[in-house]
Write a structure and sequence with these properties.
It is a single chain. By secondary structure, the protein is an alpha/beta fold. It is built from 16 helices and 14 strands. Helix 3 (95-108) crosses helix 12 (354-363), helix 7 (230-238) runs antiparallel to helix 8 and helix 9 (257-281) runs antiparallel to helix 10 (293-304). The two termini are 40 Å apart.
């Protein structure tokens, strides 16, 4: 694969406010309910009533447009990018996303960044199509990585460690893996310290098999779009959550016999050693896929035909995406707690772009509430979704006030304290 000499930092980003639609609302709800019921029946901690789009919806159930503390989720994610050292941002989404984007930039400004909007392919909003559309406005060099991320990470404001990672120079894909042990090192002795509830299906052994991590798939992807096979990337992305990611890779490798021959010794080594090494650390573990870090890096690098690596981070904001009603409620409860805990700063106590977000709520949202059907009565709209997906409560009362029993849970209080400290550190670093 040769020696890479990529640019040392990333200054371009593609952010996706798009995802696929189910054929009908009844089908989408069936999928969401089936998943939640399976998780409840199996006793999993992270129950997810998924927020899914449907082709026949009168109002597009696009999660990126959902309001958190009266502010569209997508604006939090945009604020994270505006805070960063990025110079160019491509936004991929619906025309409603563009309307919110334009209103947001009108109020808070672009901070000297170039922002492009590309309309989603509503008929085929796949990762492959999103990346192809997103790269269109960008002038990329062969040795340049871009940041690709979904737009449902509202508190991922500490991006500099990703944009200026020292692994960028020598790798064309960096997977920022979500490790339960790294993010919540005391979760076993203090369960409330794990303020983001997720299911971790993968296992990774680091430090020559001495360190075990429960892993959830990444949400941010620094990648070189000109060095990666888009077909393989799409296949791996589609299989990333169901435990069949390695078999998807092997099937793709069958079309490239030379790569498969190089991959076979690594697979044999994996089969001989991984389970035995894992068993020494956790005898009765159940998981979908696992590997040593070195085995994974070598195998996937051969499969993709370029150098890849992983990062295990300690930042819960990387795993705190909004895929489900429970995820939305985590952030709504967090924002409401911030308002009660610090009336003066409110959201600004936990998000470094908080003051600008509040200003947008006051100056930009009144017009959007008249213009976009989703916002005309968002509390009633969301209460209806909670009822249709058999949630045990609704989040708002008849006056539109947030009344959820989750608003003062121990996890919310822990999350507030964590983000308050994080916000102080990131804000101080930005000023220095």
């Amino acid at each position: 694969m040769g020696t890479l000499r990529n640019k040392a930092a990333i200054d371009k980003c593609i952010i996706s406010f798009s995802h696929d639609r189910h054929p009908s609302r009844s089908e989408a709800d069936r999928v969401a309910l089936a998943k939640a019921r399976r998780e409840i029946a199996s006793g999993k901690k992270g129950i997810s009533h998924l927020i899914l789009r449907a082709a026949d919806d009168e109002i597009d159930r696009l999660k990126f447009l959902f309001l958190i503390d009266g502010i569209p989720l997508m604006c939090y994610s945009l604020g994270n990018l505006l805070l960063s050292s990025l110079s160019e941002i491509v936004v991929v989404g619906s025309l409603e996303v563009k309307r919110v984007l334009d209103a947001f930039i009108d109020v808070v400004g672009a901070r000297g960044k170039t922002i492009h909007f590309i309309e989603e392919d509503a008929k085929s909003p796949s990762l492959l199509n999103t990346l192809e559309r997103g790269r269109g406005p960008l002038s990329l060099e062969k040795n340049e990585l871009v940041l690709f991320q979904p737009g449902d990470l509202p508190f991922l404001y500490d991006l500099e460690k990703v944009l200026k990672d020292d692994k960028i120079k020598n790798h064309n894909l960096i997977l920022w893996l979500n490790s339960r042990q790294a993010m919540f090192p005391r979760f076993e002795e203090d369960p409330d310290s794990e303020f983001v509830q997720r299911n971790y299906h993968y296992r990774a052994l680091y430090k020559d098999g001495r360190e075990l991590h429960d892993i959830k798939e990444p949400n941010v992807y620094p990648l070189n779009l000109q060095a990666l096979d888009p077909g393989i990337m799409e296949s791996l992305h589609l299989k990333r959550k169901d435990g069949r990611i390695m078999m998807a890779g092997i099937r793709k490798a069958l079309g490239a016999p030379f790569r498969l021959l190089r991959l076979l010794p690594i697979m044999v080594c994996h089969l001989r050693h991984f389970k035995a090494d894992l068993k020494r650390l956790r005898p009765d573990d159940r998981y979908q896929f696992g590997a040593h870090d070195t085995t994974f890096h070598k195998g996937v690098s051969i499969l993709l035909g370029t150098a890849i690596t992983t990062r295990v981070h300690d930042d819960p904001a990387f795993v705190s995406d909004v895929d489900a009603l429970e995820d939305w409620e985590d952030f709504e409860a967090l924002a409401n707690h911030a308002r009660r805990a610090d009336k003066e700063r409110s959201l600004a106590a936990i998000h470094p772009f908080g003051r600008e977000l509040i200003r947008f709520r006051e100056e930009g949202m009144p017009a959007l509430k008249k213009e976009l059907p989703l916002y005309r009565d968002f509390p009633a709209y969301l209460n209806g979704i909670f009822r249709s997906l058999e949630m045990e409560h609704v989040p708002f009362d008849s006056a539109g006030r947030y009344i959820s029993p989750e608003s003062e849970s121990p996890q919310v209080i822990r999350a507030y304290r964590w983000y308050e400290e994080k916000c102080r550190k990131v804000g101080g670093a930005a000023l220095s």
